Amino acid sequence: MKIATYNVNGVNGRLPVLLKWLKESQPDIVCLQELKAPQDKFPEAEILEAGYHSVWLGQKSWNGVAVLSKLEKPVVSRTDLPGEDEIEASRYLEVKIKDLIIACIYLPNGNPVPGPKFDYKMRWFERLDAHAEMLITSGKKVLIIGDFNVIPTEKDVYKPEKYKNDGLFLPEVRKALENLISQGWTDALRHLYPTETIYTFFDYFRKAYERNAGMRIDHFLLSPEVVPLLKKGEVDKEVRGWEKSSDHCPVWIEIEESK
């Protein structure tokens, strides 16, 4: 079973890119972030024609998350994290597909720092941490997937010294991710490739993609029940070079299906 995450940076404006990638890569399940489309403007018909059922949480102008599935229609279990989201942002969508619980997330960016956006990011992280602890103690097969807007370590970014004051790389942000993972989650790509340079995002400026000057901010966190099923994982880096592509690359893992 191939499970992917892709921050599309505008699902309608980049729909041709998304559909081309779906056709070429053929993932079974996809988590999308940054739809930038209100609920009634999601391209459900086009995605269904491509072979995917979809559920989504839209929002005008910004944010928005969706889960696509070739296997069956995802069953929605949550559309927000517990606790109050004072901004009412569409950033969390939790679904069940077969025996998997999949949480598609778009964690706040947090910039500029300091400021209310960074404070909101850290509060959102606290809510995610609390809910993730409940998920991991359920004993079920759970995956938290998406754009975390966190660079975990210095080896996950080109020239880390440039990001020392960035909301994606501040010590307290990395510590928040560490605390989350310490509940017992496994960072799938680092589990597979402990020492390799892996980037999932390349800025539109300064020819970042051409220079391989990127960062790794799109992640898969696996509960202990999923880790033994993990077979492989990759970044579809070439998609970033397509015309009118997102600044994120699609990222995917393969897991064995339950017997």
UniProtKB/TrEMBL annotation:
Q: Which domain of life is it from?
A: Bacteria
Q: What is the lineage of its organism?
A: Bacteria, Pseudomonadati, Bacteroidota, Flavobacteriia, Flavobacteriales
> Keywords in UniProt for this one?
Hydrolase, Magnesium, Metal-binding
Protein name stated in the entry = Exodeoxyribonuclease III
* Signal sequence residues: none
What species is this protein from? Kaistella gelatinilytica
Q: Which cofactor does it need?
A: Mn(2+); Mg(2+)
Per the UniProt entry, the Enzyme Commission number(s) are 3.1.11.2
The entry's family comment says: Belongs to the DNA repair enzymes AP/ExoA family.
Which gene is transcribed and translated to give this protein? Answer: xth
